[in-house]
Design brief:
The complex is a heterotrimer of chains A (about 250), B (about 575) and C (about 200). Chain A has about 250 residues and is α+β, with helices and mostly antiparallel strands. The longest helix of chain A has about 35 residues. The radius of gyration of chain A is 26 Å and the shape is elongated. Chain A has 3 helices and 10 strands. Chain B has one domain: Cytochrome C Oxidase, Chain A. Chain B is built from 17 helices and 2 strands. Chain C is mainly alpha-helical. Chain C contains 7 helices and no strands. In chain C, helix 2 packs antiparallel against helix 6 and helix 2 packs parallel to helix 7. The chains are: A alpha+beta (about 250), B mainly alpha (about 575), C mainly alpha (about 200). Chains in contact: A-B, B-C. Chains A and B meet through helix 1, helix 2, strand 7 and strand 9 of A and helix 3, strand 1, helix 10, helix 11 and helix 12 of B.
């Protein structure tokens, strides 16, 4: 699956319906601030080196410091930094971090993603909306989640490997797990990343606002196959998603 | 008490072994660290070239690849992914633990500290010598991983479990080696702290110490208090890796088999590891702050601007370095509110380095600047370190980091601070103190050529890399072309590789200059840079440094261009009334 | 300037009474505190987040170890007495207190060894025949106490060397720095045990 719109040196398309857009805005602000700051400092440095280059007939300015000037600078830097801090912690953080971590929509569609060396396994709860019970003892090649077939809730669970489909404009909550080592759930076009820790289930949610075929990749070194650990990530209209899900549940 | 003590020029007959191998003289130990660490720097650089080859020319086998064993390359000489993982892991581990830390805290600290405070040697020359040999032992152990089954460590320099706990002998050796390297660091820090407190020459009050001394001194506190935490992380990781425990391992299913581990927490390792490793990054830059402050002042012929605030900034960086560690863990499953706390502290810690940069600029403005080779490197440090610091702002916020974490943006950032910062600082200090260490001058012309090539190709290599980060390119990926969304990055990768190869080759000029100048450099006068600090007051410091009596210090080290002094400098041990 | 009248800053004020050697020991102990602190913090992290942490009161022999703690802390007092003795040039008193210290320290290690033996049987039963690695409770227990025991052992060897030198009349009221420094290390080993003991057995 190829992806368009990738220049290879600039940001991938941003199909995130909410916090992902704010994230890009925050990055843009930092880019401007750092560029201006950097140019000013390097400019001053170059200016100094040229304007005050060595001439044997003069001496440098004998100045150890200036208490008022230094204190003013310290205060200014502190105010600017802390001010930027509160802006960052307040405005933008609320728009992104708090949303991701504390404000997952209640009606989000839940899916389970289980990372392993070196593949992504996905489970959909099916019509009953319930995930079937699992047991680590039951895990094998055919049954990566270790689903207990005797559990009635497990009957309509759909498991895929290497492929996620989600409906567009629907919030999706991922229950992220890992079987073996630390992996990281990264979908560049959604601006979302979350490490998958063995022994934990971590929630992360998103909402895609454009259809298309993209990728889910692993962003934490997980062994020799880390470089191959990708899954297709398809965003499609709700009806197409549902018929895909039905197709998969018959397999 | 007062006066002269020690038999100095005295008479324990030194053999070749006790002069050059098992020396207890701080200057020789400093040089031992210098040589050994430069060799490791070279090795680390070669590993980086191999990494870049794979990324820049994925369709060309590694040069010399067919000579390597089949655990590393396939039959056509193409690198295997598992070997790629070894290469970047060992590159980083060697650079961090065996090049940058020992160059700053073994070469500079050892050579410069006693001289600049007017001491005859460290408080414990024996402990000093032992710390060097622990470093050597650690290096041998870590590198021996290349020769064991499964190859050397391949879990990244961060060595996160469960991956590192499940790994084989190469990883085990890495863990043990890093632990021993930690002991070497701690021994050094004990010596530096005690030496500064107890062995300063008469008149050398704390307020008259040159900034390299302050920097080394404050760094030693960070080393002292942070490194033991690395030791305990390694002990627990070793137990998990080799003795079946579960400090960091919950129940796992590996290759289809259920493990016997349970109850462990991978996140605990990250907390303990980063509690050390964040101060470690300041350990890897702070001595360079001191060196660069010195060089900028000397070559501007101007007092360092804001000495007290410089010292205050160094102290606050050291203190705050212990409360920012989890900004490396924002996306790791860390509690979301804890993450916000660390974002707050991370942003506050940007204030002191900003003061440092302003003070360096203020020192330059109004100066009488000579662009000698050490000064070129110091100016590169100022600008490149600043860029590295600015790129850190993208990573400092919990949410901004979501996109950039574990991408090439981080790789670009860390190389700006470690190469653009630490390494240029190391070049500045080494070219500056070379005449004192070896009694000869390095070649100016070669020094300039090396500098410009390094500066240009460093920026071409690593500035470009930020854009790979913008593209979302994950790090530690052996075959980026596996990912359709990364296909357009191949051009950038090849460009970066070519720049890196030239950057690497340019370092050979430095090596050549360095080695040649040791034997054939022009003889150096006692004070080639017209500097004020005590080390320049003696031509060839021998055993005990100062001959019959230690120098007496009459004023601070930054009396440059004083209006009442004839010359534009005034050595600390030369008295002139009215100047304190 | 008459150089014989300008003092070395390291010999002035509060630094005057602190020799380099003693300062080095203090500085080393600061790093050792961090090592113990990190292990104890790791222990509490695992314990708090654990879902099946056993009751330490049930598995460990709190009474025996409490008594053992008293022995170890007593050795801190005898060590202090040894230093006090040599300060008034009481060679016999110093030697007596020194060997008492070493005996109490050795007793501590022996009792701890006995406890280890007992516990490995208990842990074997409770943790699936794996007394060390079967549960994080066991691993943290042995790691923390073992790390401490290594320090006790090192301390005993250290004190032994000092005691031999003392027996040869090396120290006097004018010259007892080495004893003083060894005492500092020994006090640290004793009192850090309080933190370990409280964490593992009491809290």
């Amino acid at each position: 699956m190829k992806e368009d719109g990738y220049s290879g040196w600039w940001f991938p398309p941003n199909i995130s319906a909410n916090y992902g857009q704010t994230l890009d805005q925050g990055t843009a602000i930092i880019t401007w601030v750092t560029m201006i700051g950097g140019i000013v400092v390097i400019g001053l440095m170059l200016f100094a080196v040229i304007r005050y280059r060595y001439r044997p007939d003069r001496k440098a300015l004998y100045l150890h410091g200036n208490f008022k000037f230094e204190t003013t600078m310290l205060v200014l830097v502190t105010v600017f930094t802390l001010g930027g801090e509160f802006f960052v912690l307040g405005e933008i953080s609320e728009g992104v971090w708090d949303k991701i971590k504390y404000q997952a929509p209640e009606d989000a569609m839940e899916i389970e993603v289980l990372a392993e060396q070196f593949a992504w396994n996905i489970r959909y709860p099916g019509d009953d909306g319930q995930f079937g019970e699992t047991d680590n003892e039951l895990v094998d090649e055919e049954n990566p989640f270790g689903i207990d077939e005797d559990d009635s809730a497990a009957e309509d669970d759909v498991v895929t490997r290497g492929l996620i489909h989600v409906p567009v404009n629907v919030p999706v909550k991922v229950k992220l797990r890992s079987k073996d080592v630390i992996h990281s759930f990264f979908i560049p076009v959604l601006r979302i990343k979350q490490d998958a820790l063995p022994g934990e289930t971590i929630d992360v949610w998103f909402q895609a606002k454009e259809t298309g075929e993209y990728h889910l990749v692993c962003a934490e070194l997980c062994g020799l196959g880390h470089t191959t650990m990708k899954a297709g990530f398809v965003v499609e209209p709700l009806e197409e998603f549902q018929s895909w899900l039905e197709e998969k549940s018959e397999e | 008490m007062t006066t002269v003590t020690l038999d100095t020029v005295q008479s324990h007959k030194e053999s070749f072994l006790t002069t050059y191998v098992f020396s207890m003289d701080h200057k020789m130990i400093g040089k031992q660290f210098l040589i050994a660490s430069f060799l490791m720097l070279f090795l680390g650089g070669c590993l980086a070239m191999a990494v870049r080859w794979q990324l820049g020319f994925p369709d060309t086998p590694l040069p010399g690849g067919t000579l390597l064993p089949e655990t590393m390359v396939d039959e056509d000489g193409f690198m295997l992914p598992e070997f790629y993982n070894v290469l970047f892991s060992m590159h980083a581990s060697i650079m961090i633990f065996f090049a940058v830390i020992p160059l700053l805290n073994g070469w500079f600290a050892n050579f410069v500290l006693p001289l600049q405070i007017g001491a005859r040697d460290m408080a414990s020359p024996l402990l000093n010598m032992i710390s060097f040999w622990f470093y050597v032992l650690a290096g041998i152990i870590v590198l021996s991983g290349f020769f064991v089954e499964g190859g050397a460590a391949a879990a990244g320099w961060t060595s996160y479990p469960p991956l590192s706990a499940l790994a084989g002998m190469g990883q085990t050796l890495w863990i043990i080696g890093v632990m021993i390297l930690g002991f070497s660091s701690i021994m050094g820090s004990i010596n530096y702290i005690t030496t500064v407190f107890k062995l300063r020459a008469p008149g050398m009050a704390f307020g008259r110490m040159p900034l390299p001394v302050w920097a080394i001194f404050i760094t030693a506190f960070m080393t002292l208090l942070a490194t033991p935490v690395l030791t305990t992380a390694m002990i627990m990781l070793l137990l998990d890796n080799a003795f079946g425990t579960s400090f960091f391992l919950p129940e796992l299913i590996v290759s289809g088999e259920l493990t016997e581990t349970s109850g462990g927490k991978p996140l605990l390792y990250q907390h303990i590891f980063w509690f050390y490793s964040h101060p470690a990054v300041y350990i890897m830059i702070m001595p360079a702050f001191g060196v660069v402050s010195e060089v900028i002042s000397v070559f501007s012929r101007k007092p360092i601007f804001g000495y007290k605030m410089m010292v205050g900034s160094l102290i606050s960086i050291a203190g705050m370095s212990f409360i920012v560690w989890a900004h490396h863990m924002y996306q790791s499953g860390l509690n979301a509110t804890a993450a916000k706390f660390f974002m707050f502290t991370t942003i506050v810690i940007t204030i002191p380095p900003t003061i440092l940069i302003f003070n360096w600029l203020a020192t330059l403005l109004g100066g009488n600047i000579r662009l000698r080779v050490p000064m070129l490197h110091a100016l590169a440090f100022l600008s490149m370190f600043m860029i590295g610091g600015l790129s850190g702002l993208f990573l400092a916020s919990t949410y901004g980091d979501i996109f950039f974490h574990d991408t090439y943006f981080v790789v670009a950032h860390l190389h700006y601070v470690l190469f653009g910062g630490s390494l240029f600082g190391i070049f500045a200090g080494t070219t500056y103190w070379f005449p004192k260490a070896f009694g000869r001058m390095m070649n100016q012309r070669l020094g300039q050529i090396h500098f410009w090539l390094t500066l240009i190709f460093f920026n071409l290599t690593f500035f470009t890399m930020h854009f790979l980060g913008f593209a979302g390119h994950m790090r530690r990926i052996a075959e980026p072309m596996n990912y359709p969304f990364l296909e357009s990055t191949q051009g950038l990768h090849t460009f970066i590789t070519i720049s890196a190869l030239i950057l690497g080759a340019s370092q050979l000029i430095f090596a050549f200059n360095f080695i040649r100048s040791i034997f054939r450099g022009k003889e150096a006068p006692a004070n080639p840079w017209d500097a004020n600090t005590l080390e320049w007051s003696v031509k060839n410091p021998g055993h005990g440094n100062w001959g019959l009596s230690v120098p007496i210090v009459y004023h601070g080290p930054y009396e440059y261009s004083h209006p009442e002094v004839l010359e534009d400098f005034l050595p600390q041990n030369r008295h002139q009334s009215g100047i304190i | 300037m008459n150089e014989t009248t300008i003092p070395f800053p390291g010999e002035e004020g509060r630094l005057a009474k602190l020799s380099s050697a003693k300062l080095m020991m203090w500085v080393f102990l600061a790093s050792d505190v961090m090592g113990f602190a990190s292990l104890i913090a790791g222990y509490f992290y695992l314990r708090i987040l654990s879902v099946d942490w056993p009751d330490s009161g049930e598995l460990l022999n709190v009474t025996l170890t409490s008594i053992n703690t008293v022995f170890l802390l007593s050795s801190s007092f005898t060590m202090g007495s040894a230093v006090a003795a040599i300060k008034r040039n009481d060679q016999k008193g110093m030697l007596r207190q020194l060997w008492l210290t070493i005996s109490l320290g050795s007793l501590f290690l022996m009792l701890q060894g006995y406890e280890y033996f007992e516990l490995s049987l208990v842990f074997s039963e409770v943790f699936d025949e794996r007394p060390f690695s079967g549960h994080v409770f066991a691993s943290t227990f042995f790691l923390l106490t073992g790390f401490h025991a290594a320090h006790v052992l090192a301390g005993l060897i250290y004190l032994g060397c000092i005691a031999v030198a003392a027996g040869r009349g090396r120290y006097s009221s004018e010259n007892y720095l080495a004893l003083d420094i060894a005492g500092l290390f020994w006090h640290f080993v004793d009192w850090i045990w309080v933190a370990v003991f409280l964490s593992l057995y009491i809290i």
